[in-house]
Amino acid sequence: MRLLTFNALIRGDVRARLRALAEILRESDFDVVCLQEVMYRSHANLLRRGFAHSACAGSVVLKGGLVLLSRRPIKRWRFVRFPMTGPVRPEFLMRKGALVAEIDELVIVNTHLSANRDDDWSPDNRYALVERAELDVLARLLAGIDKDRPLVVTGDLNLPRDASALADFRTAAGLADAMAGDRRPTYRPTPQWPHPPAFDHLLVRGGITAHADLVLCDEVTLPGGRRVYLSDHYGVAADIRPRDEFGFSPWTDGPPRIP
Question: How far is Cα 254 from Cα 252, in angstroms, rounded to an integer?
Fold first, then answer.
């Protein structure tokens, strides 16, 4: 299975960027696409071309800004909301949480944790405590899923790869990081923030492996010729395959194919 996770950015030329993203996705070979910061159902509708199945919660404004697109049937899905704790902030309007879907034998959790507005992931930081509380919700959710069942947790976790809260969550839930050791940022560097961390993650368990890489890193051309980035994040694309005792996968044959 080919899977993409991508924070599509809530502001700035949204519809034009989403139309450009929709064309890229339509021509890609992704089986499943997990998106964050898609705030309106009308925006989700722009992205569905080429994907027969989708999941998102909310009639007009989407809960959590989460959308899952799939070329394979979705057996069932549900949205689980995080508690609104910590400092009062506009982010509360997003009603953040996790979108849980079952596709074939695979369980996929698409999520977007609260941002750390202090850029301080030490254990006692006020936003770090919020993120730990949200990870606790995810941990309880995953505890109810058979540990032998193939599972992917992905999305914008708003935590650096080496954050202690994320490491504790991976250990408690038995998850492996598909990009462990990769030091590249997934938030696009800017002059104001030249060395951001990796916020977007793909974690797996249950007898599967994932070979992941960054995608959607370059500018695209909008109608009228203007060049823009699709988002302030990069995408993470992965080939996900079952792991047998020989490490052979019948699902894919070769490295990830980057659109």
Answer: 6
Q: Within 10 Å of residue 49's Cβ, how many Cβ atoms? A: 13
The answer to whether the predicted template modeling score (pTM) of the entire model surpasses 0.85 is: yes
Token pair 């998850």 in the structure block, residue: 175
Both tokens assigned to 256 = 């990830």
Per-residue pLDDT for the chain (259 aa), expressed as one digit of tens each?
Answer: 999 999 999 998 999 999 999 999 999 999 999 999 999 999 999 999 999 999 999 999 999 999 999 999 999 999 999 999 999 998 999 999 999 999 999 999 999 999 999 999 999 999 999 999 999 999 999 999 999 999 999 999 999 999 999 999 999 999 999 999 999 999 999 999 999 999 999 999 999 999 999 999 999 999 889 999 999 999 999 999 987 644 444 444 343 343 3
The rounded distance, in Å, linking the Cα atoms of 141 and 185 is 28
CATH T-level fold of 2-241: Deoxyribonuclease I; Chain A (3.60.10)
Q: Which residues are within 8 A (CB) of 94 and not within 5 positions of it... i.e. 6 or more apart?
A: 39, 64, 65, 112
- Can you give the residue ranges of every domain in the chain? 2-241
Structure token digits, residue 33: 């696409």
SS3 63: helix
Kindly state the helix (H) or strand (E) to which residue 111 belongs, with its residue range. Answer: strand 106-112
Residue 75 has phi, psi (to 5 degrees) of -65, -45
